[in-house]
Structures are given as C-alpha cells and as structure tokens.
C-alpha cells in the first residue's frame, strides 16, 4: 500500500471545505487507498491549527467535526516518533518535519501545496507533489469537477 505524508494545511483545508481537492484527498485516505504517515510534531500542529477559534468561525467548523478528524488522524495512521532531524528545507525549516516523517515512515510521497516543499520535487526517492497531481497521476482520479 502507498505510504503518504500530507502537509498540515491540506488536512485542515480538507476538514474545512468539502468538495475540494484536499477533501477528496482525505476521502481517498479514509477509503484506505493509501496509508497516511504522520509524526507526533505533525499531529500536534494539526490539533493546534484545527482548534483555532478564528478558523472554526471562518469555516463554520463544528467541534465534533474537528474532534472526529483529530481522532481519525490519531488512530488511523502510522505515527512516527518525529525524532529524526533533517535540514533540507532551508527556506522554511519548519517544513523539515514532513520530510523527516516521510523518511521515518518509509513514505513514497509527500503531498503539499507549500512551494518550499514542492520546489524540492524529490528527496531520497520520496516524491513531493501537489494534491491534484497525486490524485490524478498516482490514484488515477477524475477530479475535473473539484476546486
């Protein structure tokens, strides 16, 4: 099964906006089309961002939806320790946690919309790509109707 790391922003966007590319990406994970790999630092970041009141207000997120996503990410993923330190993304060192999680979890892909990660394209055999490209090129999805 494909092992994939997803950037925090895509998890948050997929939780906040249905009928979007990030939402469809999360649906593919829920349907077990790939195995989601995260680390404890990524899990903490997802929780912190989803629990922001301004985000909840802006996207009309319900507390139960947030709790459901946090529970799913906590229990239906492979969680790596997040102890590996890498210095690959020099323009935004905080993004190194995604590469570290991919290495620790033997992931084949990192899915992101972050240009600092996307500019790397590939690291040690781990492909870094946009959600749209992953859905179309790897999972062979027809997403023409999605935003």
Detail the poorly predicted runs: none
Work out the helicity level: 40-55%
Architecture, CATH level 2?
A: 3-Layer(aba) Sandwich
Rg result: 14 Å
Could you name the CATH class? Alpha Beta
Task: Name the overall outline.
Answer: globular
Describe, in plain words, how this protein is organized in 3D.
The chain is of the alpha/beta class and 147 residues long. It has one domain (3-138): Rossmann fold, CATH 3.40.50. 48% of the residues lie in helices and 14% in strands. The chain is built from eight helices and six strands. It has helices at 8-16, 21-30, 40-50, 53-59, 63-75, 96-104, 115-118, 131-138, and strands at residues 3-6, 35-39, 78-80, 109-111, 122-123, 126-129. The chain has a six-stranded mixed β-sheet, sandwiched between helices. A hairpin with a 2-residue loop joins strand 5 (122-123) and strand 6 (126-129). The longest helix has 13 residues, at 63-75. It is globular, with a radius of gyration of 14 Å. The chain starts with a strand and ends in a 9-residue tail after the last helix. The mean pLDDT is 93.
Give a brief outline of the structure.
It contains eight helices and six strands. The protein has 147 residues and is α/β, with parallel strands linked by helices. Helix 1 runs parallel beside helix 3 (40-50) and helix 3 (40-50) runs antiparallel to helix 5.
Secondary-structure map with pairings?
Blueprint: E1 3-6, H1 8-16, H2 21-30, E2 35-39, H3 40-50, H4 53-59, H5 63-75, E3 78-80, H6 96-104, E4 109-111, H7 115-118, E5 122-123, E6 126-129, H8 131-138
Helix pairs in contact: 1-2, 1-3, 3-5
């Amino acid at each position: 099964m494909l092992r994939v790391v997803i950037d925090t922003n895509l998890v948050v966007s997929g939780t906040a906006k249905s009928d979007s590319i990030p939402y469809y990406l999360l649906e593919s994970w829920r349907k077990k089309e790939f195995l989601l790999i995260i680390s404890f630092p990524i899990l903490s970041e997802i929780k912190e961002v989803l629990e922001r009141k301004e985000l909840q207000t802006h996207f009309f997120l319900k507390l139960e939806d947030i709790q459901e996503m946090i529970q799913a990410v906590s229990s239906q993923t492979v969680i790596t320790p997040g102890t590996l330190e890498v210095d690959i993304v020099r323009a935004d060192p905080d993004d190194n946690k995604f590469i570290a999680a991919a290495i620790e979890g033997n992931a084949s892909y990192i899915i992101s919309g972050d240009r600092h990660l996307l500019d790397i394209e590939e690291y040690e055999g781990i492909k870094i790509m946009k959600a749209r490209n992953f859905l179309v090129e790897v999972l062979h999805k027809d997403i023409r109707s999605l935003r």
